[in-house]
Amino acid sequence: MRSHLLNDTTAESYRRSVTEGVERVARKLAATRGPFTGVTPADLAPLVDAVDLDRPLGDPSAALDELESVYLRDAVYFHHPRYLGHLNCPVVIPAVLGEAVLSAVNSSLDTWDQSAGGTLIERKLIDWTTGRIGLGPLADGVFTSGGTQSNLQALLLAREEAGSTDLTKLRIFSSECSHFSVQKSAQLLGLGRDAVVAVPVDRNKRMQSVVLAAELEACRAEGLIPMAIVATAGTTDFGSIDPLPEIAALAAEYGAWMHVDAAYGCGLLASRTRRHLLDGIERADSVTVDYHKSFFQPVSSSAVLVRDGATLRHATYHADYLNPLPQALGFARAGGTPMTLAEQIPNQVDKSLQTTRRFDALKLWMTLRVMGADGIGELFDEVCDLAAEGHALLTADPRYEVVVEPQLSTLVYRYVPEAAASPAEVDRANLHARKALFASGEAVVAGTKVDGRQYLKFTLLNPETTPADIAAVLDLIAGHAEQYLGENLVHAAS
Ligand SMILES: *Cc1c(COP(=O)(O)O)cnc(C)c1O
Prior knowledge:
Helix content is about 40%, strand content about 15%. The protein has 15 helices and twelve strands.
């Protein structure tokens, strides 16, 4: 069994094994004809069930053969131009290269003594990101597993900074279109069910700052504490960006922590033409970025950034075996004289909710070293341009009704039949079209509700998708919806 351990004596078998895996995935990617095969859980479950985990195949080639049928053949492929579903991006090759390196070396980014240069690389990327945001000289942050964790950590810091002993008095203000992880975080932080105040949005799905101001005033009048305002820079459904400067001014006025959830919109940080859409983000106390959404990075790659690095202490605990207190304070030498810089040990675990932690930063590092930030920004600009073209197609198409003009790269729309149909029938036709499309494997789109009605959604993150792809998918959807309504009419008549 030692032959399976990766070390000096097995380097050749590592090379063979990984190369074979890469070959197969490369062939798969080249031969993929659609984003999905339409496989159902009922089709696939028996194949997975039939695998006896207590009877290993012993051989990587055999395991890869088996993987073909239980996973690779029917996976959902985000690189396909007709994958228009959720916030998943095709990934850039330098990042995948980074992924291969980081899992083989297997550094753990909790402490310097488990990562060495990895810690410095992560810190440099954090500085790079806070620099792009404009958070100032005291800024800091840490890589996380995703936007959900980044939001949780930011709100933890906000809760601690609010300094209240009565958690039921704390309020978080976020738009009704903000991500559900805000509510989840409030719950995890023990804030109680009423903690999150949902501020209404305008017709472009941006938080109404006038209503926010009124809510803050009411909060104060009731003797409650405005703990945080969460501005979303790129809502998950609409890509709408809340009015950051107005929100920053209100946060300052009411002494609330300003968190900007830029999980989706962070790609603008690399854009040469759209960076201004994030103006005001530099006034945030904390920011969430998901490189695995708009920086074309493999899952996971995310970070939480803060204006004042000292606030990260709220996530700091000391363990004798890991990051003992004297070392962290830099007073380990006899007599209590401060350590020299060379003696101070940078331990990222002091800033993180996690302990053992992947070196995800390496993927972004490789990306920036090969392509540069402008390269990433160009890709993101392309999908934003594509969304504008898609919006024009939808507005010109009498079969469809579209919700907002996109600021980023999502389009929310619905099929509306020519013939009279009840709102419930229209809902069902759209839902059916989405499911039928998914089952056909020809394209994948997402769905969402707007004012209680069923809508469909394109999340465009693939620069390879063309307006012709969008037009073709709209024809497919209309076909499925029309067929559904046609059959329904037959039913109703009989
Ligand atoms: C995706 C998303 C999140 C959650 O990020 P994960 O990486 O999926 O945990 C948070 N906020 C917004 C606005 C998002 O779009």
